[in-house]
Every structure is written in C-alpha cells, then in structure tokens.
Amino acid sequence: MTDSNDPGGAYDPATEGAETAFSDKMSYSDYLGLSRILTAQSPLSDAPDELLFIIQHQTSELWMKLMLHELHGARQAIIDDHMPEAMKLLARVSRIMEQLNSAWDVLRTMTPSDYTRFRDALGASSGFQSLQYRLIEYALGNRNEAMIRPHEHDPESVALLREELDRPSLYQVVLSFARRRGFDVPDEITATPAGEPHREVAEIMELWRIVYSDPSAHWALYEVGEKLVDLEDYFRRWRFNHVTTVERVIGFKRGTGGTGGVSYLKRMLEVELFPELWHVRTVL
Ligand code: HEM
Ligand SMILES: N[C@@H](CC(=O)c1ccccc1NC=O)C(=O)O
User: Fold this and answer.
1) Which positions does UniProt annotate for substrate binding (predicted)?
2) Is the ipTM of this complex over 0.95?
C-alpha cells in the first residue's frame, strides 16, 4: 500500500491532486513550444560535440532575443522619462550578458580535435551572420551599415536591420534625455538614421564630466551612465571570451565567414560603444 506520509515511498501525483490528464488542457510542453525547440537540433556530422556547438548557439540566440526585447523596453522607458523602469531593464540586460559570458565555460571544453571533426560541415556559415547580434550592436549604437551585406539574401533581415538604424540608439536616447535636462547636446549627435558608429564628441565629454563631478546634482544621468558602463563592460567580456575561445579552438585559421578569424575578432575588441563614458574617467 502507498502511504503518502512515508518519505521513502514512491510519490503518487494523484494523492495531492497533481494534474495528470492533458489531452484537452495546455501542458508545460504546449506552453513552451518544446516540441519545436527540442527538435530544432540537426547535426550534420556524427561528431559527438556538434550537439554542444548547436545548443550553445541556439541558447545564445534565445538570450539575445530576450536582450533585444529588454533593450527596446529600456530605450522606450528613457524616451518616456521613466528612468527607474529603464534602470531595472538595463540591469537585466547586463545580467543576460553575464549568462552569455558564463556559457563560454561549457564551449571551452571542446578541443580542436573535437571541433575539426565537424568544422567542414559548417561551410561558409558563421556567427558573423547572426541577425540578432547585429541588431544588438545597432541598438547599442555600434552602427556599421556595411554589416547589412551578409543579410542581403534575406529581405526580411535587411528590413529589420534598416528599421533599427532608423531608430535612435540607446546612447542617443540617453543623450536626448540629457538635452531635456538642460545639457548642450548637438542635434547631429542624436540624428537618425546613423549608418556609422558614434565617435567621441567634446560636448558629450563635457556633459559626463559635469555629471560625474557632482553626481547628486545629476543623479538620473549618473545612474544611467553607470548602467551603460556596466553593459559595455559585460559586452567587452563577451568579445574577449569569444576571441580567446576561438584562438584556443582554431588558432589563427581564417573564419568560415571569410574574415581573418582571430585578427578580425581582436580588431572588434577595440570597439567603444559609449566612448565618452570611458574617456571621461581620465579627466575626473
Ligand atoms: C568554437 C567556437 C567558435 C568559433 C571557432 C568561432 C569563430 C568565429 C570567427 C572566426 C568569427 C569571425 C567571422 C568569420 O570569419 O567566421 C566569428 C564571429 C562571430 N561569432 Fe563565433 N565562433 C565560435 C563560437 C561562437 C558562439 C558560441 C557564438 C554565440 C552566438 C558566436 C558568435 C559570433 C558572432 C556574433 C560573430 C560576429 C562578431 C562580430 O562581427 O563582431 N561564436 N566567430
Ligand atoms: N566561424 C567559425 C564557425 C563558427 O563558429 C560558427 C559556424 C556556424 C554558426 C555559428 C558559428 N559560430 C560563431 O562564429 C569558424 O571559423 O570555425
């Protein structure tokens, strides 16, 4: 006999009324669309590590999807002057980046011998063609129109990238917020579409110098400035983890996407999303 009070006995879901009949009710798997997600892994080789490689990228893309969602929310909150909400969302974006950073520890367990067993199967595909990654870069303000080119075979992706370039970047909405708070922000700095990355501007350096010199007088800007530094700090760690993992796995081979590989990724380490926020530290 099953005794529900016997901790050693097998648990019977029926004793506490746990639902077990799902033929006409929404189940866990129905709600989460698991039949689609868990059948979306199609290794092209019989190499054991290809599943790791696929899942690592798919989970990264899921986190990137959430990151874009939260970045859009944060950007809108700043446009609407809802700074506490924006702070909460930007903190979440940094935590998501931290998830992506931790995930490298799993992929790092794949050796060059493991990877070369299926690398050829990847053809010319590469993270270089990640639409969501490019949308994140564009949303943050690293706007290089030339990066649309690998998406030209897919008009929907091109449209999404162009729409993003038409919107103000996260940095631009922060600088417009500063203008509303009385700071001198030249119009061209917040103009869209911007097909180039933001470069350091003297007026914006001065803006952050004033904010950081007297935080209590400019608390909202001080807080958002630190949130942006946090975000870029995590993003830099992602780039560093990526290039280090790449060197560890393929050395200095060319990338499947056609770039020089590590040499290209090292160049990307120099990207500055919010240059004045970093450079102002030197003059404080
Ligand atoms: C063994 C694992 C990996 C290797 C060897 C690798 C290699 C490379 C290389 C060589 C590039 C330069 C483009 C090219 O010519 O292909 C690149 C770009 C890229 N990879 Fe990876 N990668 C790895 C894992 C990942 C993972 C897990 C992600 C996560 C989504 C990722 C996302 C990207 C992105 C977004 C770019 C474009 C970066 C940019 O343009 O700044 N990669 N990767
Ligand atoms: N670029 C990598 C291949 C690679 O890592 C990759 C291939 C297909 C889909 C995502 C990838 N990840 C990052 O670039 C290589 O050159 O080995």
Assistant:
1) 53-57, 115, 119, 256
2) yes
